[in-house]
Every structure is written in C-alpha cells, then in structure tokens.
Amino acid sequence: MARYQRILLKLSGESLAGARKQGIDPVRLGEYAQQIREVAGKGVQIGIVIGGGNIFRGLSGVDKGFDRVKGDQMGMLATVINSLALQSALESIGAKARVLTSIRMEPVGELYAKSRALELMAQGCVVIIAGGTGNPFFTTDTASALRGVEIGADVLLKGTRVDGVYTADPEKDPSAAKFAEITFEEVYERKLKVMDLTAFTMCRENGLPVVVFDMDTPGNLMKVVEGEPIGTLVHG
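Given the sequence above, the corresponding structure tokens read:
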C-alpha cells in the first residue's frame, strides 16, 4: 500500500550520467525508468523534475565566460534533453509519459500548466516537467519545490547518489552520522545542505515534506513510496 498518492520526484542530472560521469548512461536511465514504472503501476501519480548537470550547468558556464542568463538558459535546455531521454525510456517499457516544458517549445513538449499536469497524471501518465522554472537564477531544486507545491504533491522525493542527510559530507567525513528524520528548523540551524535555500524555504513554508534517498539502488523508489524508513525525512 503506497504511503504517498502523488509525488514529485527530483532526479539529478549527474546521477543520470552513471559511470560515464557525463552525458546519459543508458544503463542508469533504464534502471530509473524501471523503478518509476513500478511505482506508477501502483496507481501513484508521479511528477518528475530532472537536473541538467550531466550535460551543462549554468554556473559552470559563467566560469567559462558565458553570460549568466545565457548559461542558465543552456542549462534549461539540458534538462529538456534529459527529460526526453527519460520519456523515451519509460515508453519503451510500456509506461505512459509526457514531457511538459516551462518554456514554449512545441513539438518537443507541451507548455507546462498545473491543470494539464494534473489531467495527465489522472490519466496514468508520468509527467516530466522540463526547463526548470523557465527563468534564470533558479536551480532545478527550486523548480522541483515549485512544481511539487503547485501540483499538490504529498512529498518531494529527492533521489540522489547519497542515501540521506548526514551531519557532514559522508564522502569527505567517514564519521558523519545519518539522520532518519530531521526538521526544517534543525537543517537551518546546522547549516546542512539538503537543497538550495530558495527551494528548501519554499518546501518549509508550504508544508511540503522532503525525503532524501539513494535513487541509484534499484527498488529504493518503491520502498520510499511505501513508507519504508530508508533515506532521511525532512519535515515541519
């Protein structure tokens, strides 16, 4: 029995690169698609926002001399590429998926609207929302928080390569301890990096809980949706 009936899943572009470290790893893409299809098969409504860091990151473009606005726009297009790849992977295994874009670019994807996203989800489609917020200076973390609040998601699931929130970076500090759950306030007080501050504040102010979990382990998405205590729950 699913604990959550409607979710917003945030996937990182870097994780989509898999062992390749850049671009799209077809093995990782296929694993993600399988996990998402299994959860959709339980009747859970799914919205997805994917980052674009495996292709292009706006801030890295600034370091190379790009104008920040142009760099962020390039990053938005990178998220569209990842979204189309995920849509294709889902459809290839029999799942229904649609890409909605935050900026107009038919026929690549239909322009995002809350009502259209909810309509598609009610029809059993996985809705992949591409293009970030459609504005520069905002991350895909912020886009996922915004879309999660808009569609009335029960939870924002942040799928990463790390299995939760720790007292310190576990890849740098072997003594770092993992939280099973933590409040928004404690995250602020400890200055922990869960999401960017704009996204995190949006979740807190709108009562949208966040679960940070390891998406790279097959089966974990289903476990989180069914309420198994893996990852870290961030709540009010």
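Residues 19 and 25 are 7 Å apart (CA to CA). Try to locate this feature in the token string yourself.
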